Amino acid sequence: MTQRANDAQTTSIRPIRRGWLAFIGFLLMFTGPIVYMVTQDDPYVRSTGWPAFVIMGIGAVLGTMAFTSDRRKWVTALGGLNVVLLAIFVYMFYVWAQLPPTQGFTALKHAPGFTLANQDNVDVSLNDKLAKGPVLLVFYRGFW
Amino acid sequence: MSELRGFEAVNDLLAESGGSVLGISVDPPDVAKKYVATRHHLNYDILCDTDRRVIHQYGLVHKNAGPDVDIAIPANILLDQDGSIVWRHTPKRIQERLNPADVMIEVRKLLDRG
Questions:
Q1: Burial class (CB in 10 A: 0-12, 13-18, 19+), B59
Q2: CB within 8 A of B12, min separation 6: which ones?
Q3: Element (H or E) spanning A55, and its range?
Q4: In a structure prediction context, what are the per-residue pLDDT tens digits for chain A, which is 144 residues long?
Q5: How far apart are CA B27 and CA B50, in angstroms?
Q6: Which residues constitute the domain of residue A22?
Q7: A115 at the B interface (CB within 8 A)?
Q8: Are A40 and B2 a contacting pair at CB < 8 A?
């Protein structure tokens, strides 16, 4: 009853109701990170995260558009939530994901020697490898 | 992980001069074999710094990256045969990945020089 009365009032002031835009925007806020997860095999996508930013950006714009022309509570809440979700993603991507500084490494001129087991549990020595040719060392975080 | 597959081509190029790519992480050998070498069809060595000795030697320790777990800070280091560092790259963020094609350019420069 009350909701209907409110709606009627809102409609009389603002005839265009765009609540559905906020809902689509909300779906896009989750689609963005999922698309990023399945496309991050590409080094450029992984580094920039552009598919997620484009999709979530559209979601935030839709949520804001809905909010500016439709002030029902759930539309306002959803529109605001879309912007918050984008902000959280930006924070995770650029702030939380920062790596610690590497002064000790930057000062290195010469590679310290080592011997480590490889994936087949066979010992591999850096000096043995260097005796044969140049070497590219690739330190990575882990298997995940 | 995706870039590790890309480094297969770098390994092939280095192999022409007897050189090689060495991947290094703190994963134990069974994990490195199953989830890295086998899954991504890698032919080069994936080394296992399980006791974190080498990442300490190189100053590449990410302390408490997980709950009470130290892992490697990602880094790419190109060495000439004397073991001198001729080129290096460390990302600023964990998602940042090198394009293997850019590494190829550095490797070619080194091979042309030698």
A1: middle
A2: none
A3: helix A50-69
A4: 455 555 555 555 555 678 889 899 999 999 999 999 999 888 899 999 999 999 999 999 998 888 888 888 998 899 889 989 999 999 999 999 999 988 889 999 999 999 999 999 999 999 999 999 999 999 999 887
A5: 6
A6: 2-96
A7: no
A8: yes
Q: What does the pLDDT look like over B79-107, one tens digit per residue?
A: 999 999 999 999 999 999 888 899 999 99
Using CA coordinates, name the residue in chain B closest to A132: B18
> Mutation test of the interface with chain B: which of A115, A137, A144, choosing the one with the most B Cβ atoms within 10 A?
A137
What is B2-113's CATH number, 3.40.30.10, 3.40.50.150, 3.30.43.10, 1.10.10.10?
A: 3.40.30.10
In this prediction the ipTM stands at 0.96
Q: State how far residue B30 is from chain A, nearest Cα, in angstroms.
A: 7
Q: Name the packing angle between helices A19-39 and A73-91 (round to 10°).
A: 20
Count up the domains in chain A and report the number.
1
Count of C-beta atoms within a 10 Å radius of residue A115: 13
B32 → chain A, closest CA residue: A119
